[in-house]
Amino acid sequence: MARTIISTDAAPAAIGTYSQAVRVGNTVYISGQIPLDPATKEMVAGDMEAQVRRVFENLKAIANAAGGSLADAVRVTIYLTDLGHFALVNKVMAEYCSAPYPARAAVGVASLPRGAAVEADCILEL
Looking at the 3D structure of the chain, how many domains does it have? Predict the structure, then answer.
């Protein structure tokens, strides 16, 4: 099955050796997104809620570029440097994903790229 690379200026460009997303058949694999503002290429200013919201905005932009939306998400993985933000992630995610929610994992990590406090990746089924 052919792979299609998904790319959009509405989300941050890759900062490493990866694509924003790859589509194989009807499945889209979105790479991990940190709270980078695609316009400034800088981490968003503000509190943790602003950071989580930027992560989901980045995921949403890539999902849209793939011809889908976060309503098509079947799996989301959240990486947090402080699992104390778990409830906040739930609150923000509920604004971007509706019930029935996708499968999800939340993983506590020691650090993330560019000093981010949160990262998320996503798999869509279109």
Answer: 1
Express each pLDDT in 29-43 by its tens digit. 999 999 999 999 999
Residue 53 is part of which domain span? 3-125
3-class DSSP string for the chain: CCEEEECCCCCCCCCCCCCCEEEECCEEEEEEECCECCCCCCECCCCHHHHHHHHHHHHHHHHHHCCCCHHHEEEEEEEECCHHHHHHHHHHHHHHCCCCCCEEEEEECCCCHHHCCEEEEEEEEC
What is the pTM (predicted TM-score) of this model?
0.97
